[in-house]
Amino acid sequence: MAEEYYYDEDTETAMEKVKRLFRENKVVAAGVGLTIAAFVGASYGVRTGRREFAQHMFRARVGFQFFTLAALLGGGMFYDNKRKEERLAIEQGRMVALDQHQQEKNV
Q: What is the three-class DSSP state of 11?
């Protein structure tokens, strides 16, 4: 079960936003893990003199970095739209409650 975190977009720093996106978007975390694995594999290939293997790992690292960036941007846009919808629903709920309160006051 995912934990809910409170955030305030007005005071949220860039680093806090990146951390929040990593918590919300598990695909990004997987992409980062694969990027690190490819980098470790490439460094192993360089140390052991296996040029072809190292070259494949460097290419895989670049591909995983692209995948991670695409997931980060896509997840950010998805969750941004989701938050806008949630804020709109909350605001509409507040307006309904305010109208009901004013009607009760006038009665």
A: coil
